[in-house]
Amino acid sequence: MTDRLITHLRHLDIAVPDHAKQVQFYTDLWGLTPIAEDSGITFLAAEGSPEQYVVRLREAEEKRLDLIAFGAADEASVDALAQRLAGDGVQLVSEPGALQTPGGGYGFRFFDVDGRTVEISCDVAVRRHRRVEEQEAIPVKLSHVVINSPSPQRTRAFYEKHLAFALSDTLFHPKMGEAMYFMRCNPQHHSLAIARGPHVSLHHASFEMRGIDEYMRGTGRLLRHDVKKVWGPGRHLAGNNTFSYFLDPHGNTVEYTTELEQLDEDTWHPHLYDFTQPEVSDQWGTANPMDEFVAAESFNDPDRGVFVAPPV
Description:
This protein is of the alpha/beta class. It has 2 domains: about 5-120, 2,3-Dihydroxybiphenyl 1,2-Dioxygenase, domain 1 (Roll); about 140-295, Roll (2,3-Dihydroxybiphenyl 1,2-Dioxygenase, domain 1). Helix content is about 20%, strand content about 35%. The protein has 6 helices and 17 strands. It has helices at about 20-30, 75-85, 150-165, 210-225, 280, 290-295, and strands at about 5-15, 35, 40-45, 55-60, 65-70, 90-100, 105-110, 115-120, 140-150, 165-175, 175-185, 190-195, 200-210, 230-235, 240-245, 255, 270-275. The protein has a 9-stranded mixed beta sheet with strand order 14-15-16-13-9-12-11-10-17. An 8-stranded mixed beta sheet has the order 2-3-4-1-5-8-7-6, covered by helices on one side. The chain is globular. It holds the Pfam family Glyoxalase. This is VOC family protein.
């Protein structure tokens, strides 16, 4: 798209009451690497990713989603997006300027239509990363983020209009209607998805593994440590990616995945998938059945950070 100025997903920032417990989970069990720490804030990188960090954990009295960060190509793109958003009446949290987070860079923040804080940045220093080896069951990168919205059509329209995200596929239920929109900002099937939920919250964050073997080894490690499994292992139809969903210590859903589809954007036409059909949810038929109880696990707690910018 000629007006698409966002290039990719950078990181997800969350706040939790028990910071130490959360850090231990994401490092010792999930497989991320701490790269910086400062007064109750920890920045975690994925070994295979050039991003300075893919998760930021912040200690706070209440659990919340601090922000979702996306990359842009250059300062001109960042400035153009900020100007476009402000001109359309979107509330900016900060004006474009130098970032004080690891890797520096240039960026700004704003509230989306549901009140989430979103950051757009460029010129962040590339982290010295490495090839994840065979049988090494740690995340290569942050794959995608899924958010809950009580008005998913409105949220989808916001990201299409203001950030030029494109629809890849839609899940629907014959009685409940459209339930999830898979949105892309590059040829990856989705970097963001919007789920119908009872309140604004994080649905899940997904991390890409090296391959099927590493994905299954990671899944097995979490099962052996009695981490609560929500759903999986299996393979979705939309995106054609594998999935194993677990709950972190504060009830956020996190996913191991691999082989997410890369699209030819010039020829792709979105599908409308009925997720009551078993093969839509899981082509393999190996996951526990998707039902209302499994779905409710990822509703999460109502986000306390709506229209309130994080302090850092």
